[in-house]
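Table S2 (continued). Query chain:
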Amino acid sequence: MKSKYFKSLSILLAGIIVFSACEDKDDSPNLGDAVGLWQLNSLTGTYDRKVITKTGVEHSADAYPLVANWKDAAGFAAATGADEAVVTGATNQTLASFKAGDNAPGFPRTAAFDATALAAVGISMQVELLDSKDKDSPGTYNVKGTYPSLRLDAEKCNTYLMIPPPQINDTGDWTVNYDTKIFALSPVVDIDQVLPPFDDGTFMVNREVEPATFELDFVDRDGHDTRYQEVQPTWSEADDRVISGLGALPVNAAGGWDPTADTDPVAEAYIMSAALASWGNYLTWYAFNVSAEAAVKVADVKNPLTDLNADGAIDAVDMVIYMHADNLASGGGKTSFGMPYALLVDSSNPAAPAVVDDSASDFALAGLATGAGGKLQFVINKGVCMPVNETITFDSGWLEVVQ
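Corresponding output:
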């Protein structure tokens, strides 16, 4: 009896073991360690924009000049009775001219955020990477949160960084290859999406730390009229073309216009140049009058300005010599803007004329009565819009959200 009992018990246990073995299966995700809910922890985006010129493209032109306007032009015209259009035309300064193939002004541009910076500006993103039904199928993803983007103020033709909108509500398919470290994202095509399609992102997952980390790097090419073919089948000129604008002035530490300066553009700036060394490297009221008078005198049919220093050029240096001679002769000459030559050039030493440097202060209309000078300040009354091809390189870091 006892033997029979143990025999039956052994058969029962063996059945349980066999049954359990049949039921035991690998419950790891089909798409591996990347499956999960991830919170954005760091983000670096490098924006590259190249100017283009193409038929049928909005704002397309052979060249894109950036014209700065003297902020006191209208005030000067009103105070002196001069024609405002003439004053504006004479004082406008073409700072730069962009053409096809050039970097758009201010680009390449990199925006980098660590966890603290993300929180400070209100950027918050979560991506949920859902597993696939089997190892041969893509998974689905959902992204929610807020994300930085470069926008165009079309009225002012000015590009600016918008944070934190737009609100993200993306979805689509994703696949991953752990051997090649390639990550692919395929947004659905029937709704607006913030994240771009890509099939060659690179990734790394580390589940040896707590919380786990996920790094994803990818390139956005859907704003480039040639490279879009790498990630999407069609190009829409109306929807996909990026327009870059410059309606303000990036400046250097001295407050001078500087297209290479890594600063946010400002409303007003000085114009600086090594050619203006006699006026502290600034375009001042006195420097402008000397230069403008040289242009007037060169065009004087009766008594044109000539190459007085025999250096092969007719320029402001020759105008200073001319003014000095007029001062010595007590000629009482004035520029077309009413500035006496005697204020612009110090002729106290007959053998050595000296340019008067007025760069110690800013120009003010109140100083017109006394002939005061000062640094001129310039603004952009009408920005310049340039169609561009854009690519964006993103490096992102994520932390797993433990649910």
